[in-house]
């Protein structure tokens, strides 16, 4: 069978093949597919297997034309399982192998997606203006170069570090450091953009901050002057001042809500409802929403007007 595959008239042109591999039962099985068709089939765009498979066979090695023996297939997939079902399993669960050009193109797509998301979410904290795509790209390159440089240094000086001692004399674990080493194709662009933002904000290769959210908060006037029931749930600016002993935490629902808002844009009383529009740090949105839900018992709500407020030239 393998001799026939290697004949010139039947030989697979590897420049036009996309391999899907699945390791099962200590063996690696491969199927030969047309380029771009595997993803179309997995997403449901393509439904005809004839348009996906170059050869309706299971191989141990496609490039050598080495088909998988029946015994190997039965041992790995079960006795009597039709070849079509085995091919479908490999197609569904297998890992797609791509060439260098495809891998580079995929990496570039993810890179552009990550930089684009980051550029839309971070701003210069002084002017609130967004940075250009190129400036964010350079900032990430700086972090990546620094991370690789530090990795090399730590590898040569491993074991020489001394743990920081706490007040009680015991070794204190070091806070987790957000490190950026560059994009990969195995994670989603959104998750990598979040990692990139954390690293940029922590290391500040250029002045950066998360763009603030713009919210509208409405609340029944009947609960505004109520004392806050729970000791926690504040987390706003007033609450942090209490910890420093500078100022007591705001005691009413209204004051505590305003404690979360960095900048009030407008506030008014319309009928029996108080409405305030303002800007908050993205990290404050969830605790603010939870506070409103817990303290107003359904008589208040927070609505996002803008996920990331930025100023552009």
TrEMBL record:
InterPro entries per record: Ribosome_mat_SBDS_N_sf (IPR036786), Sdo1/SBDS (IPR002140), Sdo1/SBDS-like (IPR039100), SDO1/SBDS_C (IPR046928), SDO1/SBDS_central (IPR018978), Sdo1/SBDS_central_sf (IPR037188), SDO1/SBDS_N (IPR019783)
Primary localization: cytoplasm
Pfam family, one: SBDS_N
Ranges in coiled-coil conformation: none
The Ribosome maturation protein SDO1/SBDS central domain, residue ranges: 112-211
Annotated region described as Disordered, given as residue ranges: 147-177, 228-251
Entry's Gene Ontology cellular component terms: cytoplasm; nucleus
Keywords from the named record: Cytoplasm, Nucleus, Ribosome biogenesis
Compositionally biased residues, Basic and acidic residues: 239-251
MF annotations from Gene Ontology: 5.8S rRNA binding; guanyl-nucleotide exchange factor activity; large ribosomal subunit rRNA binding; rRNA primary transcript binding; small ribosomal subunit rRNA binding
Record-annotated Ribosome maturation protein SDO1/SBDS N-terminal domain positions: 16-103
Highest taxon above the source species: Eukaryota
Domain Ribosome maturation protein SDO1/SBDS C-terminal positions: 249-307
Family, similarity comment: Belongs to the SDO1/SBDS family.
Name the UniProt record assigns to this protein: Ribosome maturation protein SDO1
